[in-house]
Amino acid sequence: MKLKKSRRKPGAPAPVLDAKTLLKLLRESKRPLAAEDLLPVFGLHRRKRGEVDELLQELVAQGKLIKLGRAYAPLERVNLITGRVQVQRSGVAFLIPDDPRRKDVFLGQDTGGAWHGDRVAVAITRESTTRNHEGRVARIIERGRELLPVRIMRPAGPGSFLCRPCDPRLDFAVLSHDTDPALGLAKGDIALAAPGERVDAAVWEGEILSRLGPEDEAGVQEALVKANHGVPTRFPDDALAEAARLPAAPAEADFTGREDLRALPFVTIDGETARDFDDAVFVEKTRNGCALWVAIADVAHYVPLGSALDREAFERGNSYYFPASVEPMFPKALSNGLCSLNPRVPRLAVAVRLEMTADGRRGEPRVMNAVIRSHARLTYDRARDVCVDKKPAARAELAAEAGDAVVAMLDLAEGLARKMRQRRLERGSLDFDLPEGEVRFDAEGRPVAIEPREAPFAHQLIEEFMIAANEAVSEFLQAHALPCLYRVHAEPDREKLKTLYELLARLDGEAAPKRARAGRFSDDDFTPEGLGRLLASVAGTEREFLVHRMVLRSMKQARYQPENEGHFGLASESYAHFTSPIRRYADLVVHRLVKRALGDQNMPVPGFKKLAEIGQQLSARERVAQEAERECQKRYACLVLRDQVGREFDGVVSALMDYGFWVELPQVLAEGFIRLSTMLDDYYGYIKEREMLLGSRTGRVIRVGQGLRVRLIGAHLDRLEIDLELAEAGAETGVGAGARTSRSPRPGGRQGRAARERNDGGRAPRGGNSGRKRRSAAKKGGRSGNGNGSGRGGPGGKSGGKRKG
To answer: Is residue 172 a contact partner of residue 204, using CB atoms and an 8 Å limit?
Structure first.
């Protein structure tokens, strides 16, 4: 092999053997190359082949090369696409490409041994201009999970057990041998198994490593969800050691060079169970209106780039919140202690001061390193009592605790937030006001109910302030000619919106919502303002539920990237996540760039390519958090409902298929399915063009948004499904028609998911017991969500236990 040797000048040194050079050489080669072909290129003896093989295998594991027999080739040279396998609940699979610009690839039910979540290389077998390309799995690059939560089905001989994966999308059995009898496994227990070799199409070998416990325990369900999605549950020793070396509180020397804002009556407003307070607010009157101050925990001061804490936070991407537990991005010494803006103690912060006009317009920001002291820790309910409902007892109690100035400030903040919200809606920002589901536990920790919980205006107040701060910081970095990790939310799928307009025209004729230009579609129909007009035109009508659902389904996934493409859901031209650095790594990236703009030359500025890689990692981890939260919600719904077979509910039809339909249950924030095979009064056919099921004998119509009385006939943890039937033939209810149907999604179903994913409020989400959903429509995002809104939150907005977009 003289390909490269012939190109070197006589006497020129051989290239250095490293992954970058190796990949470059293979990309320039006109054919796949084997390890022995590469040795002379690098001037290496055959004894060094092991080093070449190791680098080649690393590049294969990274998805940059594929092995073809003895040789290796770059994936792009063999027309393969890499990505993750996503299995739908119907059993069909898609490839979600690593490149976000590519459409999903349809794989069907044959995944070539790949599981849901595996990273694979796919060869395109059929291209299409109107539908998804079709493909087949050419290679499994990386398993999506090293451990499988499994359910013990039965003993299979001495020390052996036959198990099934707890993830219903993994349709095979696991056979374990030589299991440690000290584990005390019994039928129905949940255990963790390390998968081994494939025995046949339906059976894999595995080694049971530990027992989680009985299936019906809440802690066991959350543990298996974390294992299913690779949610980290332990911090590495070096990260814990770094956290232990940090002080318990900031020292006076840390205040040097910072603006001292400790006298200003900042307050934090969060959920009842929140412990990590990364934002505080203060509002004061000015000559032309008022000034809004938003102070955010200065995590970057304590977590240097490249440190053990930083590396672990980057791998986690964000905190993970569940009804009974949380897996934070940083150890609690930071997240609940040194960095948290706890009341009545000094804390380091990065503060933003915004001049606000009397009608809620935002002026130029002033950004600064600061030291603050929160004067009060308020819950949403307490803030509501003080500044919204203005209950005398609540106001007197807060005045005695924190002073009259805090009560007066909250009144001013409430008025400002309402004006800001009105201005945001006027510019076209989409709001899907979704209920929050709170899991209620009994004294033994068993889940007994999932209850809707409306978020008070105090939650919206914080969202408005966080959105404003996020926009201001994004523009601040642009003004200083610095890069930014933007929170981008692309415009929705136009074809899906066209289908919605055409469906409404078929259903309602002249009464249907009008397009911006008569007789044809135009760009104006697909702007935030255009969608706002559409939603307003059906508000309070029987079409509201249908329109909200189909608009949500058209929304795309919000993501992090260095190119600013705007945020459609918030109708924002420039948006970044800044307000939740304790819970979102993206915010920490932005904080470091802000510090560089403020003059800290020690803060490195990542290049465009590096920011793009960071954005891909964080977007992927955000999706992991969302999927884990959804699965946990489904499991809690099944746990709560499985002892209530026979109970009747008022439901709302949420989606149709040719074999049945889904029904949302607003009372318990769950979703169930009614199979047409259980409806014996008629034969029903699905008419897709009109989005309805039609009885051939009775002419009975079932549409999305229609209210029905249904009966629970089963809740299955193994399938994560809830089975329903009509309580009686023809039994319809007033639920869904003309009601605020947008407020009744289920916790685990498609629409609850779509709403959570598309919301992108200002605050990252916090979990806790509430499991709140983001409120500003944005992603498929929010405290991190499909289109994260404000800047607070876990992977979304300040929702649930604690999410601030």
So the answer is: yes
